[in-house]
Amino acid sequence: MPTLAIDESASPGGPSLHLMFLTAGLMTATPVAVDFHLLQNRERIAPYSGRLLSDVAAHPESSRDQTPYPLRSFLRSPFAVDYKARIEQLDGYLKEDELALDPNSESDFWSLMESMLFTRKAGLVLLEDGTLRAIWKDDRGNRLALLFHGNKTVQYVVFVRRSDTTISRQAGTIALDKTQALIEQYGLTALVQQV
Amino acid sequence: MTGDILPHTAHVLRYVGPNSILEDGSIEIHIKLRTDKNEKGWSVHCLEYFGGRTKADQVDQVRQVARITLKKTGLLVEWEVGAVLQHLRDKAPQAQFVNKPLAADQNHRADPSHSELEGLPFDDEEQIALISDMIAERITSRYQAAV
ipTM score of the complex? Predict the structure, then answer.
């Protein structure tokens, strides 16, 4: 059964961390798109390594469906660690009021992070009903806000600057897997991806 | 006075919890969806109903009459009434701020400043989300919620 391990080894530039897949004694170092500071800062990765290993051990084939913090998201999004920390912070705020994060909303957020590459970081807020909202914006007034309902749909609000004096503002609800098409439709790719 | 429409020159304040403040310090507004026309509007405090000499005095009086717990990590944010209504004129032409003072009860002081934003679309979650984001665009000032 494949398992995942996080190994530490020395390199000319100092200690670094590598992700490796161990399969029946065959060790394969796998290049992955982990955020640079993950490799450099052991203090940051340490709190997550145990969770990562336990998730995979508990759900070797279906961790994507079973955990709101799936391995694929961790590898796919350069901001996964920051997002995870932020979500925990927001959840803490809600718990002060005896409210809670909706795990289905969080799961949908991670699903989107897996499904397309966002190389610009979203701001995250948490509504009182426990749903997550991700916001990308720029200083020209362009804006994309996605509310994760937790049922594989997202409510969007888009502000698109059309001219120096005009901003088009629209809102709607779409299937989660139509998000990339929405971003392209409104010409907001540069808001979520560095070009 | 109950039912008075706030003039465009008035200023309103509302508490925003830490869960609605982005990492860069910008603020997200989330107006609760009304499913019935008769549900109360979006609550705010109108500063002009307080007689403090300074804005700081007025904000402090809002802290004293607030009926929710103001967290130190939260903020009181301010708008100018006219700027908000002007910004919403296409999406919510019926919108207006109306004074709805609250009487004192066993646990709370009287709140003469309590007002509500009325005339927003009801039972339309997407339009309310859009309007919420537009209202956030017109925030003029922010104050520490609890001191």
Answer: 0.93
